[in-house]
Every structure is written in structure tokens, then in C-alpha cells.
Write a structure and sequence with these properties.
By secondary structure, the chain is α/β, with parallel strands linked by helices. It folds into three domains: about 170 residues, no CATH class; about 260 residues, 3-Layer(aba) Sandwich (Rossmann fold); about 120 residues, Alpha-Beta Plaits. About 50% of the residues lie in helices and about 15% in strands. The strands form three sheets. A six-stranded mixed β-sheet has the order 6-7-8-3-9-10, sandwiched between helices. A four-stranded antiparallel β-sheet has the order 2-1-4-5, with helices on both faces. A four-stranded antiparallel β-sheet has the order 12-13-11-14, with helices on one face. It is elongated and about 130 Å long. It starts with 5 loop residues before the first helix and ends in a 10-residue tail after the last helix.
Length: about 625
């Protein structure tokens, strides 16, 4: 999303890490040089061989680490698995070399073919060959000087002694010749130090290319075009969508079909996004919506589907089916331009404990290409907007969870993105501090920004979002305003009865008493829907329909009179958006094919179960 080219990003990382590796390799050779006796380890080209082993081996391990970090998303798991693989590779190589003086047998050759993707065993074998050559090349240095000089002055049978091969006047085929580190082989002529160095260099290059291709999403594109299921295979068993969601999908498809003639007020078009995940099945499917400039679109729902939709929109993962457009840029065809227009606040805090808040925004602002002359002004602007100006020079590691969250929102806003995606932005934030986020988002809407918001704070969605989408079981089931949703699915009153005592669920007599109370209430409120029971409260939903407030109150007063010994008082309020969210909670927990016995279902519940919606609550 920063607009940085993936190759440039990873190449800069590799250059920096390469400098560390080069310095380490040089220091290691110097240590050998000054710690050795008689230059045993560095003479006859040993210092060059040692430096290349450390250098190429280090590059191979670094690139392997890059690749592994992309495969295993969790940093802690990646670190543990990487170290375990290296440890097992070192132990396996050590056992192999200790039990086989040569490596010309089939078992050793098979082992080396199997470990080709891992750089550590080749470093181990390189040091093995290096050590063997050091021993061969130092045999004359280890002979006592007075002993060798005495033999070299003699003739006759002394020339057949092994020590005589170290003499300068030796002219036989057994005379000492230092072995070349790069051509020496032990047991099998192709397993030389040169071979190990070349393989480590190739491993580093291959892993670096793979990491860059993964960051370009080439493998996800291959999976999308060759392995993904067609769109008609998604959610075919889940029934029909609500007409509002179907109409939204048709509208999006029509707008995308206009191409460059899309109206200027359109900010984001999401067209039929679907995503599978191996044996888990569908994560989300048939997600379509459009958001106009200056509008906030909220996603309500439980589970990870909302976050994965956002990760798809930011380009972190590709959908198996579907596309998104920030006019005129397509997520699939113009990925770099598409993601450059997005600011993203993920669920996990994206701050570094060793940086201050100011330094964090400077880092992200630089990555997004803000020129240096404007960077400090924009950093101060967002620190002030999110209430962090007085704490801007504190290390993020000392921040409270709420302060970290506000800083993550500031990271999403810096760089003036057209589309702002916020995943649980007010999580862990004190109610008094939420005004900074809410006020900032309302100002951004007036500036024409597109805001996508996922939150479990129903009050937040109701106040900020002009348009809402309800996701159940990974499907976008309904799209509309908060008022439309309430009037469509919960167009009634919520009545709460406060009982005179608390009843225990473990006591059979208490359960029977509560059952009798519920029966008496439902006899008077024959159209009421039982919603919840908790300790000493019972909650019902009364459909509004043609009933007036007076007739409902009259019946409630009758209940209170008849059950005066059991009901302390009652309260009646208009249904809120939170009721929708609670209904979604129930539906996520219950089977999608079964209705609870004795429980009547609201149109919203039948909608989420893929059943037809009718106007009544029967």
C-alpha cells in the first residue's frame, strides 16, 4: 500500500542484511587470523575460502529466512520453525559426516539431494571440506622444525620418510603440494567446496526471486486462474440472498461495466469477492458493495470474514473469484496503483516498540512517498488529530493499548489515501478518547474520503456509517442504512421484565417457575418474540405493525398486575441496531438448517438462514 516496488523493498533489505553478513564474515576471518598458530587456517588461500563460506552461507540463510517469513505468517512461529529446521539440518549433517568418511554411497548422495533447499547443511559440508584441506596443508607446519631440518640434510633412505616430502629439495611424486581449497574432494569427486559455494549462491538467488514473486502475488494469481473454483460453486447451498444484497451486486456489476465512464462520485466498487481456504471451505463469498466518495461503509458480523475481506482489498491476499475497483484502477490489473490509494488499520497493532509515535509516522509517511518538506507537517497534523501530540516522543513500547490503537489509525490516515480501511479502530480505546477517532472520520467524510469500517461497537457503526453490510457465515446478506435495517428486521419494541428474584438454572423448581412466568407473559403478548433470559431479566421483542404505544402499555400493565409477585417492573424501548448484532450472534452459534423448538424467528433470522422473508413474524 506504500507504493514501494516489491523488488526495491526486498533488495534494500538484502543490501542492508548483506552489509551485516559481509562485516560478520570479515570479522570471523580476522578472528581466525589472530587466534591461529603458524597461520594454519589462512595460508594457501584458506582466508579467501573461509570468507566465501561465511559470506555466501550468510546470504543463503538470510534469503531462506525471508522466504520462510512469507510462508509462515506468524513471526513467533516462523522464528521457532526456522531455528528448528536449522538445528535438525546441522545435526543431520554432523551425523552424516561422522558416520561416513566419504560421501560416495547412495545414502549420503540421497541425503544431499533432499537437503538441497536448505542452506545450512551446505555450510556444514563446506566447513567439513575446509577442515580437511587445512589438515592436509598444515602437515608440514606441524613437524618440529629441528626434526625436519635434520632429515632434509640427509640422503639415502631418509628420502622415503614422510617428513622428507616437506623438504625444499624434494623432487619425488610424494613431495608436499598444498591442496586447492576449491577443487579438493573427499570420497566423491563432485562434492567440492566450489560446488557447495555455488549451491549456496543459487539457493540465495532462488529464495530471493521467490520472495519477490510472492510479494507480487504471482503464485496467488496462478492459484486463482488454474485452481480456484468458478464463482457459481460458491455458496450454492446457502439459499438466496436478500433482495437488497442482490440489487447491490447488480448495481456494482453495472457500474464496473461502464469502464472509464464510471460516475465521479463512486469511490470503491467491490464485485463478487469469493475466497476458499483448503479443507476449511469458504471463508467469504459473493461479497459485493459500492461506496461513494464521502461515505462510510460498515461491515457488521462475527468471525474473521470481515478482516479477510479487508486483507483482500489491501492486496495482501487475492480472491479466488471477483475484483475490486477504485476508479479507474482494478485490484487485479493495476494492483500497485490500487493499493497506493488505500490506508489500512489492521486488527493487530502495526507499531514498533523501539520507535516513538513521531518516528513511526515518519517511517510510514516516507514509505508512502511523502516528500520531506511536507512530512513533518502531516505528522504533526495526525498526531494532533488523534490526541497523541503530547506523547509523540514516547516509545511505543510504553504506550497503553488505546494509545497504540490511535497511532495505528494515524498510520492508516497519513499520506492522504482515497480509501481508508479500519478494522476495529476503537478497540481498547477509552470512551473519552473515541471522540478523537470519530471526529477525525467525520471530517474525512466531508473531504470526500471513502471509509470502510469493521467494528463490533454497534453504536460506533450506527453513528458513523451511512451504509451497512451484514455478514453472516461469510456472506454479505443485507446492505442498507441503519434505519432501513432496523425497520426491515427489528421494526418493533424491546421489552425487558425485571423479576423480583434471581433464579438458578441448576434448580429445577426455579426453572419451572420461570417457565410459568414466560407462559403468562406470552399469553398476554401473543405476538411477542422471546429474545433472551439472564439471571433475573426476561427480554422480548414486540413487532410494531399496526399496534400503537397505548395498547402495548395497557397489556404490559396487565402483566405487571397479574405477576406482581414475580415481576418487579418492566421497561420498553425501540429496537436498536445492537439487536441485529445479537441476532447475528445467535445465528453464528446455531445450526444453519435448524430452528430452535418453540422459538419464533424474525425475518432477519430467516434471512440469515437463507429462507424467504415475509412481512409477518409468525
Amino acid at each position: 500500500m506504500s507504493g514501494v516496488n516489491p523488488f526495491t523493498f526486498w533488495a534494500s533489505y538484502l543490501i542492508l542484511d548483506g552489509l551485516y553478513v559481509t562485516v560478520f564474515a570479515g570479522v570471523a576471518v580476522l578472528i581466525f587470523f589472530f587466534a591461529q598458530e603458524r597461520y594454519l587456517f589462512t595460508m594457501h588461500g584458506g582466508s579467501v575460502a573461509l570468507f566465501l563460506i561465511f559470506l555466501l552461507g550468510g546470504f543463503a540463510v538470510v534469503c531462506f529466512g525471508y522466504f520462510f517469513s512469507q510462508v509462515v505468517n506468524d513471526a513467533a512461529s516462523s522464528f521457532v520453525w526456522l531455528n528448528m529446521l536449522h538445528l535438525l539440518a546441522v545435526l543431520g549433517s554432523h551425523i552424516m559426516f561422522r558416520t561416513h568418511d566419504g560421501i560416495n554411497d547412495g545414502v549420503s548422495e540421497l541425503y544431499f539431494w533432499l537437503i538441497t533447499p536448505f542452506p545450512i547443511p551446505f555450510m556444514v559440508h563446506s566447513f567439513y571440506v575446509y577442515g580437511k584441506v587445512v589438515i592436509d596443508n598444515s602437515r608440514c607446519e606441524l613437524v618440529a622444525h629441528h626434526f625436519s631440518s635434520g632429515i632434509c640434510k640427509r640422503k639415502g633412505l631418509y628420502i622415503h620418510l614422510p617428513a622428507y616430502s616437506c623438504c625444499a629439495q624434494c623432487n619425488s611424486s610424494n613431495c608436499f603440494q598444498p591442496r586447492n581449497y576449491f577443487d579438493a574432494s573427499y570420497g566423491y569427486e563432485s562434492y567440492t567446496l566450489t560446488r557447495d559455494l555455488v549451491i549456496m549462491g543459487l539457493v540465495a538467488l532462488i529464495y530471493f526471486v521467490l520472495v519477490v514473486l510472492m510479494d507480487y502475488n504471482y503464485f496467488q494469481k496462478l492459484n486463482r486462474y488454474f485452481l480456484s473454483a468458478p464463482s457459481e460453486d460458491f455458496s450454492s447451498e446457502r439459499g438466496e440472498k436478500d433482495p437488497s444484497a442482490a440489487q447491490e451486486a447488480e448495481n456494482v456489476r453495472r457500474l464496473i461495466g461502464l469502464g472509464v465512464d464510471v460516475p465521479d462520485d463512486e469511490g470503491l466498487l467491490v464485485d463478487n469477492l469469493c475466497r476458499n481456504h483448503g479443507n476449511i471451505g469458504e471463508i467469504y463469498s459473493q461479497v459485493s458493495f459500492d461506496v461513494k466518495k464521502g461515505q462510510c461503509f460498515g461491515l457488521l458480523g462475527l468471525g474473521d470474514a470481515k478482516s479477510l475481506v479487508f486483507k483482500t482489498l489491501t492486496g495482501e491476499i487475492l480472491p479466488d473469484v471477483g475484483d475490486s475497483v477504485i476508479p479507474p484502477y482494478s485490484m487485479l490489473r493495476n494492483r500497485r496503483q490500487f493499493t497506493t490509494n488505500i490506508g489500512y488499520c489492521p486488527q493487530a497493532n502495526c507499531v514498533f516498540s523501539g520507535l516513538t509515535a513521531r518516528e513511526t509516522l515518519q517511517l510510514y509517511g516516507s514509505l508512502k512517498g511523502i516528500c520531506l518538506s511536507d512530512l513533518m507537517t502531516e505528522v504533526r497534523q495526525w498526531l494532533s488529530a488523534l490526541g497523541l501530540e503530547n506523547d509523540s516522543n514516547l516509545l511505543c513500547g510504553n504506550f497503553t493499548p488505546g494509545m497504540k490503537r490511535r497511532l495505528c489509525v494515524a498510520v492508516a490516515l497519513i499520506g492522504n489515501p482515497q480509501v481508508i480501511i479500519l478494522d476495529e479502530p476503537s478497540r481498547d480505546i477509552d470512551p473519552s478518547m473515541k471522540k478523537y477517532i470519530w471526529g477525525t472520520l467525520q471530517r474525512l467524510q466531508k473531504d470526500g474520503k471513502v471509509i470502510l469500517l469493521a467494528s463490533q461497537n454497534v453504536h460506533e457503526c450506527e453513528n458513523l456509517c451511512g451504509k451497512l453490510g451484514l455478514m453472516v457465515h461469510g456472506r454479505l446478506q443485507y446492505v442498507g442504512s441503519a434505519r432501513e435495517i432496523k425497520s426491515r428486521f427489528l421494526n418493533g419494541y424491546t421489552v425487558t421484565f425485571k423479576l423480583t428474584k434471581r433464579y438458578s438454572v441448576d434448580d429445577a423448581s426455579d426453572l419451572e417457575t420461570v417457565s410459568d412466568i414466560k407462559t403468562s407473559i406470552e399469553a398476554c403478548l401473543d405476538d411477542a418474540l422471546f429474545r433472551d433470559a439472564f439471571q433475573n431479566t426476561l427480554k422480548y421483542l414486540i413487532p410494531q405493525k399496526t399496534q400503537n404505544w397505548g395498547s402495548i402499555v395497557e397489556r404490559l400493565e396487565k402483566i405487571r398486575t397479574q405477576l406482581s409477585a414475580s415481576v418487579a417492573y418492566y421497561s420498553m424501548t425501540e429496537s436498536t441496531l445492537e439487536e441485529v448484532f445479537n441476532a447475528m450472534d445467535d445465528l453464528e452459534l446455531e445450526s444453519t438448517n435448524n430452528e430452535l423448538p418453540g422459538t419464533r424467528m424474525t425475518p432477519f433470522q430467516r434471512l440469515c438462514l437463507g429462507q424467504c422473508c415475509t412481512d409477518d413474524y409468525s
